[in-house]
Write a structure and sequence with these properties.
The complex is a heterodimer of chains A (374) and B (401). Chain A is α/β, with parallel strands linked by helices. Chain A has helices at 13-24, 39-50, 55-58, 69-84, 104-111, 132-141, 164-176, 195-198, 200-207, 239-256, 263-272, 275-306, 313-317, 329-339, 359-372; strands at 62-68, 95-99, 117-121, 123-124, 129-130, 147-151, 180-185, 212-217, 229-235, 322-324, 348-350. In chain A, the strands form three sheets. Chain A has a seven-stranded mixed sheet with strand order 1-9-8-7-6-2-3, sandwiched between helices. In chain A, helix 7 packs parallel to helix 9. Classes of the chains: A alpha/beta (374), B alpha/beta (401).
Chain lengths: 374, 401
């Protein structure tokens, strides 16, 4: 979760404002939302992902399912694909997840009934970057119609995203081999500070004519973690197909949670549908993204100034909340035990944990770990 | 071509269909008796005063929005268990239970269904009363269970087919799962009397069945939270380690906030810890952790003495209005001159009433009187008010005389 420079959770100012508006609005009650969610939320959420000028929206071939966070959107999408994607029983359809990925991806698809979950090459530990060739090879060799889970931006946990040129290559192979893109978009706006930039990959795939799913989370970019605000955006060939898909999504939602929680969706819908509040929100998002970017550049410059062995440009080239530092498990153990700095055994750090007050200490500690422990 | 060319159009939701038709109707006297949400005597949704107060208190605390634990808000889950079992229950005191927050009743049922599918290896069979809430079947089926039924409702008397139920239940294979509605049976409104619950507990125990209670209307049925939880507490007293799903949608009017809980009663606190760990493993790939808003409101109410007192009064108020509407409907039917026995309307309890009306009569009510209900003759008494109960009685009399 995001932290301020004081190391505190941050409720976005625009969220506070909108919550007050909601509280003061006596015409609102706690009645059930429709099964697929609050209509104003669904439309606005998908519009954020696909862009105001999206051809798919203009052609009325998109659908949305309000979900319990990004996890809920992934799960509903997975349940649908298992039932309906390629024939009526997809338990054997291969699902490819990046190596590494968010650890819950595996469980989501397993519990949705998929039995053949594989990994695709992604992180190149030696060069500390994207293993593009490995990735493309896996796409070439995957059985036709396989499902690929793609991180829309700010790959979790590596922070390493394909460049636009690399996305184009990925898309070309996927189109040729009839592979299904299921995007996980948990950091739109939070990664680069720009909503459009962070949605580039999803929009490119749409412009290339793909049918796809995009699981969106508003946990980070709205700071609404515990309200569970998410959206599954569906892009189809035409309105008729999307309508039938939504009717089956309803059946899946009905047996999972019946209808989604209203508070978080109201906050997001109100914000996104008011030009003024929308601008305010974008400002709040940029504040968070900028702080993370600042911490990245400050950490890198300190490491380089200390002369810490190795190269540290990956700290600023990576994007989003997480960074794969390249520290090995022994070095990580040193960080935890000797320096009381907590990070994952994979060497992943949460950039949000860095503050102007602890930057020096963290940099020095990394320096020690790298020079003392091989 | 599309990936979705072969995707069938899902069947329209029967209850939604009722509301759609109601919306299209231009008759000023129209009545929507399909709605499964409480309405006040003006036919409006009712936000409880204790809820508004709890919301104001929560707002003033300026809390953050950090993720809840996977199992939910601890103050909420503890209070939910105490509400269901009674805070002096031996189960609560010994800690031999685990309660996790669920997405209202549906989500809690689903967690339980998935848990049983994964860990209750003795049987795949879940026995539902005939009839039961329409969503029970697909929830258990999607979780990988098989559905069976036991006799429950007697359409000839519009009341409980007790001997049929006892007969069927006594023949259920050992170690099967039986689902029971704790109070205010949905859709019939027919509940066993306490003497009958005692016999049901005995036979269920004899057959060594796993008991799954669905309690969506505690407080809302009789107006008394302890009375409505009597069956749940009696079964536990008889040594039956039940599993339980609770909803706060109706009794706190928190419908869209999705406040609910799933409880497993265990042998001891150590077993409860192991069960908890597995429930979390089920929840994480479904939605990671639950929504805070409804749970915070419910917790504030249950844990703040003044608010809790106020809530008990308000929930009794809702239950009393429903009971009053039942009484008025019957007396108005008599006034209309109906010769039928409408006693079941006042014998039944909770939001819903199985009127006994046949599909053709339901159809006529819709077409001729703009009174909308589901085809099975179920009405939501919450949709009846002192302003329209006379009209409803008149309409029913016309199609049944």
């Amino acid at each position: 979760a995001y932290r301020t420079d004081e190391g505190q959770p941050w409720v976005l100012p625009v969220v506070k404002k909108v919550e007050q508006m909601i509280a003061n609005n006596n015409s609102l009650n706690h009645e059930y939302l429709p099964i697929l969610g609050l209509p104003e939320f669904r439309a606005n959420a998908s519009r954020i992902a696909l862009g105001d000028d999206s051809p798919a929206i203009k052609e009325n071939r998109i659908g949305s399912v309000q979900s319990l966070g990004g996890t809920g959107a992934l799960r509903i999408g997975a349940e649908f694909l298992r039932r309906w994607y390629n024939g009526n029983n997809n338990t054997a359809t291969p699902v490819y997840i990046s190596a590494p990925s968010w650890e819950n991806h595996n469980s989501v698809f397993l519990d949705a009934g998929f039995k053949d979950i594989r990994t695709y090459h992604y992180w190149d530990a030696a060069k500390r970057g994207l293993d593009l060739q490995g990735l493309l090879n896996d796409l070439e060799n995957a059985p036709e119609f396989s499902i690929f889970i793609l991180h829309a931006c700010a790959h979790n946990p590596t922070g390493t995203d394909p460049s636009p040129e690399q996305w184009k290559q990925i898309a070309a192979v996927m189109k040729r081999r009839c592979l299904f893109p299921f995007f996980d978009s948990a950091y739109q706006g939070f990664a680069s500070g720009s909503l459009d930039k962070d949605a580039w990959a999803v929009r490119y795939f749409v412009s290339e004519g793909f049918e796809l799913f995009c699981a969106q989370s508003f946990s980070k970019n709205f700071g609404l973690y515990n309200e569970r605000v998410g959206n599954l955006t569906i892009v189809g060939k035409d309105a008729d197909n999307v309508q039938r898909v939504l009717s089956q999504m309803e059946k899946i939602v009905r047996t999972t949670w019946s209808n989604p929680p209203s508070q978080g969706a109201r906050i997001v819908a109100t914000t996104l549908s008011s030009p003024q509040l929308f601008d305010e929100w974008k400002g709040n998002v940029k504040t968070m993204a900028d702080r993370v970017l600042l911490m990245r550049s400050e950490l890198r410059s300190r490491l380089e100034a200390l002369g810490t062995p190795g190269t540290w440009n990956h700290i600023t080239e990576q994007i989003g909340m997480f960074s794969f530092t390249g520290l090995n498990p022994k070095q990580v153990e040193y960080m935890i035990k000797e320096k009381h700095i907590y990070l994952m055994a994979s060497g992943r750090i949460n950039m949000c944990g860095l503050t102007t007050k602890n930057l020096d200490y963290v940099a020095k500690s990394i320096h020690e770990a790298v020079t003392k422990i091989q | 071509s599309s990936w979705w060319s072969h995707v069938e159009m899902g069947p329209p939701d029967p209850i939604l269909g009722v509301t759609e038709a109601f919306k299209r109707d231009t008759n000023s006297k129209k009545m929507n008796l399909g709605v499964g949400a409480y309405r006040d005597d003006n036919g409006k949704p009712y936000v409880l005063n204790c809820v508004r107060k709890a919301e104001a208190m929560i707002a003033s605390k300026k809390m953050d929005k950090e993720y809840l634990p996977i199992g939910g808000l601890a103050d909420f889950t503890r209070a939910s268990a105490e509400l269901a079992l009674g805070e002096n229950n031996e189960v609560i005191k010994s800690g031999r239970y685990i309660t996790v927050q669920g997405i209202s009743g549906t989500g809690s049922l689903r967690i339980g269904a998935n848990f049983l599918q994964r860990f209750f290896k003795a049987s795949r069979d879940v026995y539902l009363p005939k009839p039961s809430w329409g969503n029970h079947t697909p929830i258990f089926r999607d979780a990988g269970m098989q559905l069976q039924a036991y006799r429950y409702y007697d359409p000839k008397t519009c009341s409980l087919d007790f001997s049929g139920a006892m007969d069927d239940i006594s023949k259920i294979p050992e170690k099967s799962i039986i689902l029971l509605h704790a109070c205010a049976h949905n859709p019939t409104g027919v509940d066993p009397r306490q003497e009958q619950w005692k016999e049901l507990a005995a036979v269920v125990k004899k057959r060594n069945l796993l008991v799954y209670f669905d309690m969506a209307y505690q407080g809302f049925a009789s107006g008394d939270i302890n009375r409505d939880a009597w069956a749940v507490r009696h079964f536990i007293e008889q040594g039956i380690n039940i599993v339980l799903s609770q909803s706060f949608a109706k009794n706190m009017g928190l419908y869209g906030e999705r406040a609910g809980a799933f409880t497993v009663i265990c042998r001891d606190a150590e077993e409860a810890k192991r069960v908890e760990s597995q429930l979390k493993i089920l929840i994480r790939p479904m939605y990671s952790n639950p929504p805070v808003n409804g749970a915070r409101i419910a917790s504030m109410i249950l844990n703040t003495p003044d608010l809790r007192k106020e809530w008990l009064v308000e929930v009794k108020g809702m239950a009393d209005r429903i009971i009053s509407m039942r009484n008025q409907l019957v007396s108005n039917l008599r006034k209309e001159g109906s010769s039928h026995n409408w006693q079941h309307i006042t014998d039944q309890i909770g939001m819903f009433c199985f009127t006994g009306l046949k599909p053709e009569q339901v159809e006529r009510l819709m077409r001729e009187f703009s009174v909308y209900m589901t085809k099975d003759g179920r009405i939501s008494v919450a949709g009846v008010s002192s302003g329209n109960v006379g009209y409803l009685a008149h309409a029913i009399h016309q199609v049944t005389k």
